[in-house]
Specification:
The protein is mainly alpha-helical. About 65% of the residues lie in helices and about 5% in strands. The chain has a two-stranded antiparallel ribbon with strand order 1-2. A two-stranded antiparallel sheet has the order 3-4. Bound molecules: zinc ion.
């Protein structure tokens, strides 16, 4: 029976895209290694079909054309053990699961390839963002809350005395206006001086982190930023960057 096999070009591309590694995450075996002599190598990689190449085979899909069956989209790079396993128990490896397995394996291969080259850039971006955060913290010379509290207590004392009612209201208004103005100034300064560098550092970190960790990190930074702008946690954003830097250096 005719088999819709992959061309050698498709097989080579699948192997390269998988980074010469079995795509099964529970295996991850390198699919080539040095052989016993200096000029030999051992290859255990297989360009496996997601939907079988001929009728009756595992996951055969009669709706597919010959071109679709032999196209690179229908392939997954596996070691010979895993290639055998997906065909012996095809129920455990449906086509959709194999497509996800391939996508994830290629994503891991990209991260592996990029991480070492990018790591110096990532650390530099983190340091730049951390310095901006530190400047932002140091630059706030006026203790907003204490000034506001002082104005409030003055107005409070004055409001208790009838004859200075107008004066009390004036100070109260001044305190409110001061707080709004100061919050706006802080927010503006954060948005222009710190936020772009934080965003840049996050983008660089994303290049070397798997998607799940990226989401977690972004959540952490957003929460820290909010706390920072609201002055609830003075060093919180700086702390996040110190933690991330340590994590990346340990990888
Ligand atoms: Zn394998």
């Amino acid at each position: 029976m005719a088999r819709d096999d992959f061309s050698s070009k498709v097989k080579k591309k699948l192997e390269e895209r998988a980074g010469h590694t079995c795509s099964n995450p529970t295996c991850g075996r390198p699919t080539s290694r040095p052989g016993p002599t200096y000029d030999s190598s051992v290859r255990v990689g297989v360009a496996a079909h997601i939907a079988a190449a001929s009728p009756g085979g595992p996951r055969f899909d009669e709706a597919m054309t010959k071109e679709q069956r032999e196209s690179i989209e229908n392939g997954i790079w596996l070691c010979s053990f895993c290639a055998h396993a997906i065909d012996v128990v095809p129920e455990a490896f449906p086509a959709d699961a194999l497509r996800v397995m391939r996508r994830d394996a290629e994503s891991r291969a990209s991260i592996r390839a990029n991480s070492n080259a990018a790591i110096v850039d990532v650390l530099a971006a983190i340091d730049e963002a951390s310095a901006a955060v530190q400047n932002f913290i140091n630059g706030r010379d006026i203790p907003v809350e204490s000034r506001f509290r002082q104005l409030l207590s003055e107005s409070h004392i004055l409001l208790k005395r009838d004859e200075t009612d107008e004066e009390g209201k004036r100070i109260w208004d001044e305190a409110g206006a001061y707080l709004v103005e100061e919050s706006m100034r802080l927010h503006h300064s954060y948005m222009t001086e710190v936020s772009p560098l934080v965003a840049k550092a996050l983008a660089r970190i994303s290049e070397i982190l798997p998607p799940a960790e990226q989401l977690l990190l972004e959540k952490l930074v957003r929460e820290a930023e909010t706390a920072q702008i609201n002055r609830l946690g003075r060093e919180s954003l700086g702390d996040v960057f110190i933690r991330v830097r340590t994590l990346i250096e340990r990888r």
